[in-house]
Structure formats: C-alpha cells, structure tokens
Amino acid sequence: MNAIAIEPSFPLPVIIGVAALVFIPFVLTALRSPASAPFRLIAFGALLCLLLNPQIRLAERTRLDDIAVILTDESGSNRLDGRAATTAAAAEQLERELKALGEIEIVRTTIGGEEESRLGDAITAAVTDNPRARLGAIFVISDGQATDAPLFDRLNPDAPIHFLKTGRADEVDRKVTLLKAPRYGIVNEGVDISFRIDDIGPDETALEGRGQALVVLRVDGEEILRQPVPVGAEISFNAPLPHPGRTVIELEAEAVDGELTDKNNVALLPISAIRDRLRVLLISGEPHPGERVWRNLLKSDPAIDLVHFTILRPIEKAQADNALERELALIEFPQDELFIEKLTEFDLVIFDRYTYRGVLNSYHFDNLARYVEGGGAVLVSSGPEFNGYLSLAARRNFAFILPATPSGEEIDDAFRPKISETGERHPVTAGLPESDYWGRWLRIMPASKRAGETLMTDEAGNPLLIVNRVGDGRVGLIQSDQVWLWARGFDGGGPHGELLRRISHWLMKEPELEEELLLAFERSGALIVERRTIADTAAPASVTTPDGSVVDLPFAPDGPGRFKAEIADAPRGLYRVRADGLFSIAAIGLAAPPEFENVVSTKTRLAPASEATGGGIFELGSATALKIPDLRRVSPRGRDRAGANWAGIAAREAFRTDAVSERPAASPWVWLAALAISLIAAWLVEGRGARLFRGS
C-alpha cells in the first residue's frame, strides 16, 4: 500500500511564515495580471513542495485471517441432562464448518463454575483479549444460565455474538426459595421463616396449576414436620430455637417427575441463636471472704442480669430475739416470687454457702428440683455448712439432684487443686493456664460422688468440682469456699475468673463448652470432622455425601478428648454428619450455590448481548440430532448478521504491515526547476501583455 508522507526540510513555523510572505504578493499580482496567475500558482506550489519535502511511503502488508471465538460452557448446570455431550458435539462440528469457510482463525475457550457461571465475564474477556480489528464473531454454546451479564460498553459492535442454546424444549425443574431467612434469633423465641416452592418450565417461566408438594422440615438433622404445601404460594412458619449456638433449619421438597436436578429442592438456613440476657439468681448464706468474688464476677459481665440476696437468719428467729424492724433486711426476701412464680425466668441459680434457715420450705425445693429437670441450672458452692442437718444435701426433695453427698467434717489442710483425668478432656477445665503453679486452697469438704463427672480434685483425690446432667438441666458442685484465695493472689493465685466463668456458662449450656460435640466444616477443599468427648474413644462418624451415599469415617486422636477425621478433596455439595447421636452439617463450597438455583435453559440472560451485536439465537437440539446454523461471511458494517437458520462472521479484512520504505516524491532540483520555469513563464506572459498594450 502506497501513501504520501510529509517530512519538512525546515521547522513548520518557518515554512508557514515563508508561505505567508509569498502568498500576499501572489494575490496582489494575480489581481493585477490574471493571465500570469496560473504560472505563479505553480511556482507557489513548487516552493511549498520544496520546503515540505513530500515522500512516497511504500508498505508491504499481509492479510490476516478473521477470528472466530467458540466459548463453551462447562459449568455445573450445563452438565445436566446430557447438555455436556451436546456442547462438546456442537463445538466440534462448529469448528469443522468454520475451517471449511477458510481464512478464519478459531479460538476455543471454556467457562466453568461449580458455584456460579460468569458467562458475562467470559464474553467480555473474549472481546477484549482478541484484536478488535480481526474479531469476526463469538459463538457461545451454553444453557444460558449466567450469574452476571456482559459489559455492553466493552462489546465489539462489528463482531456478532451468536448464542447456541443447549437443553430440551420441555424441561421442568422444581426449586425451593427462601423469602424470609433471618440469620440470628433469640433462644426459645423462635424465628419467622417464609419460603416458596416453584415448578419452572422453559425459559424460566413459572408453571401454573401444579397442585401441592410434600415438604419436610428438619431442625439440626431431626425431622419435626412433614406436610404438603401448595406450589407457587408463599408459606410462613415459626422455627424453634431450643438452645443457644448454631441451629440448622432444612427444608426439602419432594422431587417432581422428570425434573433436571434435586439439588435446588433443599434450602438450608443456619441460624445463630443467642440469649437476650442471662439472668442469674445468687443466694448467699454464711458470710465469708469469698462472697464478693461471685458478685464481682457476675456483675462484671454486661450480658448478665444479677439478682443477689443474702440470708443470714430466718424472720422467726429475728422476732424471737426482739430485733427491731430496721435491723432486719432492707428488702423482704420474696421467696415465693423467686422460687415459685419467676424461677423459670432465671438461667442459673447459685447457692453460695447456703444454710437452711427455714426461709425456703419443702415446696420451694420441690419446685427447684423440677426447674432443673426441666432444663434449668443450679450451682452449689459449699463450705462447712454442707455437712449437717441444715445442709442443702439434707433436703430430701432437693438432694437427689446433687451429684454428691457429704461424707464428713471439713478438711482444713492446705492443698493445690488438680485437674482430674476427666477434667483434662472436659472443656470446663481443659487448658486452664499454668495448672502446675496454682496457689493452694486451705479447706475442702469431703463428699461421696453419686453421679456426674469429677473435673477437679485435691491432692488426695477428694472431689473438688463435680458437674452433672439431671433431666434436661445441669447441676454443679464446688466442694470448697476457698476460690477467693486465687482472686486475692494468695500463694500465686490462679485462674479463678476463667474457671468460674466456664462453670457458669457450661451450666447455662454455652455451645462452645459442650463436652460432647460434633463439628464439620471445610478447610482448603477438604471436609474436616472434629469430635469432642470425655470418653477414651470415639465411634466412627456416618457421613451422607452430596450424591446421597453414606460412608463411615473413622476418627484419629487429636489431643485429650479430641478426635479428628478428614475427607481430602471432597466433592462440592452438602454433607450431613452423625456420630453418637450428635449431628452436624457442612458445605464444601457454597451451601446453596447460585449455579443450581436456576437450571432450566433460557435465552433471556444472553439475548441482550446477541441483539446488541446483531447476533442470532439458535436451538441446538440433542447431541445425536444437532442443528448447527449455516455459516456465512457478512459485512462488518451491515446489520444483517444472522437469520433464522444462519449465522454470520464479519469479514474484517484486517492486515499486518511487514515492512515500510520511503523515497522522495521528486528531487529538490525538480521542484527548483518547476519554480524557475513557472516564474519565467509568468514574467514572459506579463511582459508580452505590456508590449501589446503599448502597441495599441
């Protein structure tokens, strides 16, 4: 290809100045002598060419093939119902037909996605990663399900995008959609959840008149409801939150005949249940130096509402001593209100060196025992008063829930508290810091354990801390009133705050302190199952995999009271794990991936990109009966780029410049000669005209 290029011999401002100086006399002379104007014009042009030095540029070019991009969808939804085979067969046949056209470079690219299909990004990348001047067409072979859209400002308007859709024309799929799904709730108050079941037909149209579908509701893996509900209607219910921590709500709808997949028939909602406020009732009896330890600990926690009473002597004795009314309690002890009317409102009741004073009667203790069996919590911190007929252990309608009975007088010998073998595995005492350097306590109450687990002892093996489950509730027993020595730093002190906090929160069923716990979660693509137990061994876990199969997963020791199992490179999906009556659920990838939220093939998501570039939308059919559109060359400037059964590839006629050479358009002597000759001719014309004028 040839072109004219200018390479001035002098700076442009000089050339412009010279041209302006010459142009003015030229105009004046042309007005005075029009006959010589053409020669002076030639002289002016020759002067400009001499100054501008025009060059003839010769370029050697090679025509380049047009580019056709074949983008195949290998996402999870496009592997359903034989779509993968259709996609592969269509890509191979399309490539053969493009090669048959000739002068086309074929670029194959794929887009995957187990959790989402970003077809929009893939199309945008196909446009921007290939030379715009060579891009002739983009063929997208997909089911049309995309979680994003192409960036229209980055599309090439001269390159059509053709959408070749996989999938059948009579597809049906059922899905469950959570409409109201809170992530947090209050224990025992429940949460309102709403959902809808839809049957989806071709191009994501909702099918009408589908009747009812059977729905199963599970809470933490346990089925609590099985009921038919109308398809297409919003259904609401209140989900119970019986305990703090994580509660997993599952909704599963029965499969419909011929649907594409049942992966979107299940909706999973993990809810974190928290207590609104923790209410603790602290009853103090015998005054002792450690009384303030409990109060200070509980008052320092902003999440705890503390009600504290100290009972020193019964009202009857005060009256017998002729005590003045002002010498009695400032506030009358509301025993009936606390232990009958409002007892269930408390999360924990603590008796700190309480001695029977006749203030609480047998009915109160009966109600207190029923409160524990129904799910409440009681902690007894005892001292010398624990032995004798005034002890709580002597109240027969209450003593049966205590894990131990007194076995003698207090032992007033110094000892260092020790964590028992069971305590090393129990989360209440496991990992307490600096256990080898704890300070000494000076008293322990000997007791005979009847039930529960001994977590701490003295150096002689006498139980110091015992915890037990009674019915749905929990009971704790501390056989010493010397914990305050740790708080004062005596003999080096100890972790009194952490110990008492753990005891209290275990009694109030804090999930992180459960001694029997099963956890399942993902780590770097692997399924990790952890088991916490106070037993010496752990039975294998039963794991239900995403494809519905059940495998036994043995545990390996991972520390005191801890066991661990792993499935490396676990397939993506939902896993249900059970072991020793415990349940946990985990998801590799997203629990509800957008990729399988909608799986029916559709034109609606990619149609705007095809329409914006003049491309076509074609139904491929099946792998055994493909319907590939005919391929044609079209003009990149025209809008007729696709028809009912044909697809166009823009003929871009792009080229590559291999070499460029230049030579002067003419020698400077040529421009000088032309300048001289034209000036002489103008002079002659003007001179002849003057002689003719004088002769007349």
Descriptive labels:
696 residues; alpha/beta; Immunoglobulin-like; 5 domains; 14 helices; 23% helix; 33% strand
Topology (elements, then pairings):
Elements: E1 2-6, H1 12-32, H2 37-52, E2 54-63, E3 66-73, H3 83-101, E4 104-111, H4 119-128, E5 135-142, E6 161-165, E7 173-180, E8 184-186, E9 191-200, E10 212-219, E11 222-230, E12 234-239, E13 245-253, E14 266-274, E15 278-284, H5 291-299, E16 304-310, H6 315-320, H7 335-341, E17 348-352, H8 362-373, E18 377-381, H9 396-399, E19 404-406, E20 418-419, H10 421-425, E21 447-449, E22 453-457, E23 463-470, E24 473-478, H11 483-487, H12 496-507, E25 517-523, E26 526-532, E27 541-544, E28 550-553, E29 556-557, E30 562-567, E31 573-579, E32 582-588, H13 607-613, E33 617-619, E34 621-622, E35 625-626, E36 630-634, E37 646-650, E38 655-664, H14 668-695
Parallel strand pairs: 3-4, 3-5, 5-6, 6-33, 8-14, 15-16, 15-17, 17-18, 18-24, 36-37
Antiparallel strand pairs: 1-2, 2-38, 7-9, 9-12, 10-11, 10-13, 13-14, 19-21, 20-22, 22-23, 23-24, 25-26, 26-30, 27-28, 27-31, 29-30, 31-32, 34-35
Helix pairs in contact: 1-2, 2-14, 7-8
